[in-house]
Structure formats: C-alpha cells, structure tokens
Specification:
Strand content: 25-35%
Radius of gyration: 20 Å
Distance between the termini: 27 Å
Mean pLDDT: 81
Order of helices and strands: HHHHHHEEHEEEEEEHE
Structural class: alpha+beta
Number of strands: 9
C-alpha cells in the first residue's frame, strides 16, 4: 500500500494537484481520496481508471510502477481549468445531467424532468467505449433517500446507461414503478418475475413481482446504473 500511496503523492506533486483537485477530477468522495493518500486503502478496480485519468498516467503505473516514467506521460497533457465555453477534448463527450430529476432512492418522490434541461457533464469517450455505452444513452442524475445506502447515499450522482435494460442479477438499475422513479438492485424470478431489493433492507423490505404484477403496476427498467459518484459532507 505504501508504494501505491507514494506514487499517487509523487504524481500529485508533479502536476501540482491538491486533494480537492483529485476529488473534483474523479468525482469520488473526500474519504476515499484521503485513504489513498494516507495509504490506508488502494484504489478499487472501478475507481482506478478515474484516478489514472486524473493523474494523467496509467493504472499499471499506479499499482505496480512497471511502466517506464520517461515515456509513460508523453501522451498526456496538463490539466487546465475549463468552463461551459471550453471546447471538448478529442476524448470527451457531454452527457445530460438532470440535477433536479431524482431517481429517488427512498420514498420514491418524483423529480420533475424538464425538457429544457441544459446542464451537462463531461465524460471520457474511452470510458464509455470500454463499457460499451452509447453516449446518447448515457445520462447522470441525483439520487435521494437512503434505501440503497451504503451503495448509494442521498445526494450522490448516479450515471445511467439507458440502453441496458436487461436484468443482470445483483446489478443496480434505475426503474420506474407505478410512476415513481427509484434505484434498486434487481434479480430475475421464474416465469418473468423480478425481485426488487434495497441495500438498506432493514428499513426497506424487498418486493417480489410476478409477470402480471409487472404489467399491472407499470414496472419498467429504465437503465443500468454503471457509476456512482459520492461527495463527503462536512
């Protein structure tokens, strides 16, 4: 762990990045970044590429230091401040960000989706390609409630692939159930049924729907939640 921490801190120094910069660049929590820098934890496979992108390096170098430093950073550019008028990089794409449209992760409150929504998030094309996500199907929105805690906390940003609606057991999906938008873990049941599971099962018992109930209760899978970005609160 110490070697991984040393490489992270070394690269931060070379790029003049602070901890808050890594938080902003990766979209990960202050606690997660702090544990990497202090050597308590190493990046998970999911977060590793986000960190590598932020540090303008490779995941292999972060974890093992194998790559030759003299050539490793040649293809990266220094991070520059950007705003809405900054042109997209060649490897960037904008995805819709529904700040006020909540796939409620608790009570099921419906967030109002405005057709005039103009807010966007920048996303790496290579990340979407690696996950086989069409950029037109990629959206981000804000989660509410605590039914999916600790996986999804109130206020987290969740990224949804609207093109993946086929249930894969145990994955988290954005769903519409009786007109209420939620994020839930889904499992297939025999004869076309589905288990709808909350990670906070003590307060939110799971539901089991038959194929007929799925139709009668207007249950729809909207898309696979492929990324969850958390921010720590003071």
């Amino acid at each position: 762990m110490d070697e991984v921490r040393d490489r992270i801190v070394k690269r931060m120094g070379e790029l003049k990045l602070r901890q808050v910069d890594l938080i902003n660049l990766t979209g990960l929590s202050k606690g997660t970044i702090s544990k990497w820098i202090s050597g308590v934890n190493v990046p998970s496979s999911t977060a590793l590429q986000l960190l590598a992108n932020a540090l303008q390096t490779t995941s292999d170098w972060i974890m093992s230091g194998d790559a030759a430093e003299s050539s490793m950073f040649n293809d990266f550019h220094r991070i520059e401040a950007w705003d809405d008028d900054t042109p997209l990089d060649d490897d960037e794409v904008e995805i819709k960000y529904y700040k006020d449209f909540s796939f409620a992760c608790g009570s099921g409150r419906i967030g109002e989706l405005l057709e005039s929504e103009t807010r966007k998030l920048r996303m790496s094309k290579s990340t979407l390609r690696r996950l086989c996500i069409n950029s037109d199907n990629a959206i981000a929105t804000t989660a509410e409630g605590d039914s999916m805690a600790p996986s999804i906390k109130d206020g987290d940003t969740i990224h949804v692939d609207l093109g993946r609606k086929t249930i894969k057991d145990g994955k988290i999906f954005a769903i519409c159930h009786g007109g209420l938008f939620k994020a839930k873990r889904l499992y297939n049941l025999p004869f076309g049924g589905v288990r709808v599971v909350s990670d906070n099962s003590a307060e939110y018992p799971e539901e089991q729907l038959t194929a007929d109930q799925i139709k009668d209760q207007d249950f729809q899978v909207l898309g696979w939640i492929w990324q969850i970005s958390s921010l720590e609160r003071w």
